[in-house]
Amino acid sequence: MKCEGELSVNSPKGPTLAVLPMTKDEDSPAGPRILQPSGWPAPKGYANGMTADGRLVVTGGVIGLDHQGHLAADFVAQVRQTLSNISAILAEGGARPEHLVRLTWYVVDMEEYLASLKTLGRIYREIFGAHYPAMALVQVVRLVEKAARVEIEATAVVPR
User: Fold this and answer.
1) Strands 150-159 and 100-107
2) Going along the chain, which residue ranges are E strands?
3) Which of 17, 114, 151, 159 gets the highest tally of CB atoms within 10 A of its CB?
4) What is the DSSP track for 11-29?
5) pLDDT digit string (tens) for 54-84?
6) Do residues 50 and 33 make contact, with C-beta atoms less than 8 angstroms apart?
7) pTM value?
8) Cα–Cα dist 72/86, whole Å
9) Nearest-angstrom CA–CA distance, 86 and 123
10) Backbone angles phi, psi at 52, to 5 degrees
11) Residues 107, 142: Cα–Cα separation, whole Å
12) β-strand 17-21 against 33-37: which pairing, if any?
C-alpha cells in the first residue's frame, strides 16, 4: 500500500523501493527524503538510505574540541560537543540538521557506545531533532587525536 506522496520504483533484481518525504510539512520536494525498501523493518535512529537534490555541505572528521581546544575525557561529553560542532559547521555552510543525509561515526570502543545509547539518543535529539539520516558506525583502533573517543563525518544537502 502506498502512502500519500510516496514514490515506488520497481527493479527486476530487487525489492520495491519507497522514497518517503522527510516530514509531512516539507514544502520542497527537493529536500532530503528517506529511502526505505518496502517490506523492510523500519530502522531505529537512522535511515537505510537518503536521496536529495541541492548544494552539498561536507564536514571533515569532527571531534569534540570546545572553543578553547579542550577535549572532555568522557565519551558522552565528547559526543555532545562533536554534534554541537557539526551543527555549527552546518550553519556556517547555510545548512541545518534536517539537511543531513549521512553521518559516519568512528568510535574507539563499541561497548562504550552501546552502553550509552539511551543518553546518546537524547543528546542527538537535543541537537539535531528527530531527523535521522543514513548512518554508519565503525570501531577503530584509535583516532588522530589520541584522547578522542569519537569522530564523526557529516554530509548535508541544502535544497535549491
Assistant:
1) antiparallel
2) 7-9, 17-21, 33-37, 49-51, 54-58, 100-107, 134-139, 150-159
3) 151
4) -TTS--EEEEES-TT---T
5) 999 999 999 999 999 999 999 999 999 999 9
6) yes
7) 0.78
8) 16
9) 13
10) -160, 155
11) 8
12) antiparallel
Tens digit of pLDDT for each residue in 23-52?
444 444 557 888 888 989 888 888 888 888
Q: Which amino acid is at 103?
A: L
Helix and strand counts by DSSP (H, E) for the chain = 3, 8
Tell me the three cell numbers of residue 32: 532530503
Residue type, 76: V
Residue 143, judged by CB atoms within 10 A of its CB (0-12, 13-18, 19+), counts as middle
Closest by CA to 109, choosing from 138, 152, 72, 145, is: 138
Query: Is the Cβ–Cβ distance between 1 and 16 less than 8 Å?
Result: no
Q: Which helix (H) or strand (E) holds 121?
A: helix 117-128
